[in-house]
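Project standup — Tuesday

K.O.: blocked on the structure for the chain from last sprint. Re-posting the sequence here as requested.
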Amino acid sequence: MRKIAFLLLMAITVTLAGCGGDDPISEEEFRTKELRSQYNEKVLGSWYQERQDDANKVFEQLNFSADGKLTGYVKWLRRTKVTVGGEEVWTDWATEEDGELNGTWSLVWEKGLSWIDLYATLSGREYLWYGSKFPFHEATEEYLDFESPFWRLNNNYYTIYERGVSTPSF
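H.V.: unblocked you, prediction finished:
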């Protein structure tokens, strides 16, 4: 009888110890949940941006879906200056990128910053985008503000994407 009482007491102790609550979550997990609850719905959908300077033309169409999938299109032209007859002139535009992209996305909070975490392939090949996490600033119904994977020129870190679908003008 003592053995049965002891086993019953042990079973109750183990059961109660197991119901002590969930493990506490880290600050990064807590902030990531907060970030996603505030912005996930706003990020969903189609966004585009087109930028140009003297040496670059960039167009991005990004489509963020609720299941974490990313699709889109990227076109990037670049040119340089060369010296011809002692005078600097621009070369013709050359295509750096022009293709469809597919991958995944998520919002994460890490090391005090908010990020859009992108992993994608561009036209069937892995494209590293100089890293996978891009600083995220804000999303509203009209615009998405985060560091472009392609427009990282002239110390311009954030890019405003407009909601909708478009095609490049170049």
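K.O.: great, moving the ticket to review. The first strand starts at residue 45 and ends at 52. The radius of gyration is 25 Å.
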